[in-house]
Every structure is written in C-alpha cells, then in structure tokens.
Design goal:
183 residues, alpha+beta, 6-stranded mixed sheet, 5-stranded antiparallel sheet, 3 helices
C-alpha cells in the first residue's frame, strides 16, 4: 500500500507482528508550490537539520487530535536525506485512532502527508508575479497524514501570509504590489 506526501511522494504502510509500520516524506526539498495564490514556497535541503532531535514532533491525523507517535517518546523517527523530511513509525494496531485510519490508508483513501512548522530562517524573492519564500531553517510542530495536503494550498490557514511576514501586514503587501502594477 502506498501513501503520498504532498506532490505525490510515496510513503509505505506495512503490517507485521510488531504493528503497522509507516514510512514516508512529510516534506520534500526543492519542490515549489503555490500557497493560496498569495506567494510561492520552497523548502531548502537541510531546513530541518536543527529541528530533528531538538523539537518534540507529534504524528497526527489532519494536524489534529491525539498523537499516533511522538519523537520525545521515541515512537516517531525523523531524518533528512537528499529528498526531504522522512518519517518512520510503528503504529499500535490496537489503538482506536490507528484502527480508524488503517483501512483508509490501505485502500488509498487517506494517502497524503503534510507538516506544520514555524520558519526560523526564510528568504523572500520579490521577482515574478508572486513572491517566493524559501524556508532555510524551520522549527517543526507536527507531521500528519492528511486527506488534503496543506502544501497544495488547500489548508492555507496553517500558513497565512500575515503569519509568514510578521513585519508586513497583508494590506502593506497589497499596496506594495499595487504600486508595482502602476509603475
């Protein structure tokens, strides 16, 4: 059975005598995406190297609810490779939350991954129709199996323009871009 991280990156789910093993990518490096038509975003290779081992990251369903696994308890393993932020966990098949998703994962109904983060170092490129935000370093909050991945812009509330640019309001952004159009 295959899961996919936003952008179609495969993750695997396998059941054995120890539980249900889930592996996949919660984030992919170098993949540009449109964040709700407000800006473009790309995650730079190495953006999570400081977060791994530092941040207490939980594995959730749709960024909500009780954790299925957690880095602090040792039930969730995060690593970076050349491709992205990889997750590995062994889920408890007797856990009611795991039971509620396992069949959906096997059928492919629940087949995407996402992550929640706080940018620590970011760079903005104002060239082009939409600004491009490059995440160079981030603090991790969660990795989630999701029905609709945030990276495709469908859960934009996790990354609003106002939250991304604390020094500039959305109105300032619109005025600045309106001035560019007038010039």
């Amino acid at each position: 059975m295959t899961l996919e991280k936003r952008g179609g990156i495969p993750a695997e789910i396998r059941a054995d005598e120890n539980g249900i093993k889930v592996e996949g990518y919660a984030a992919v490096f170098g993949e540009e995406t449109d964040i709700g038509g407000m800006f473009r975003e790309v995650i730079e290779r190495g953006a999570f190297k400081d977060a791994i081992g530092r941040d207490d990251v939980v594995f959730l369903i749709n960024h909500d609810g009780l954790p299925l696994a957690r880095t602090r308890s040792g039930t969730l393993k995060l690593t970076e490779d050349d491709h992205g932020l990889k997750i590995e966990t062994m889920l408890d098949p007797e856990d009611p939350d795991v039971k509620s998703i396992a069949g959906k994962m096997k059928r492919g109904d629940l087949d995407k991954m996402s992550f929640a983060f706080y940018p620590e170092v970011q760079e903005w490129d104002e060239n082009g129709d939409l600004p491009l935000r490059t995440i160079k370093q981030a603090r991790l909050s969660d990795v989630s199996i999701v029905t609709t991945p945030a990276y495709s812009g469908t859960e934009i509330a996790l990354r609003s323009l106002e939250a991304s640019r604390p020094c500039e309001t959305a109105q300032d952004f619109r005025l600045r871009n309106k001035r560019k159009l007038i010039k």
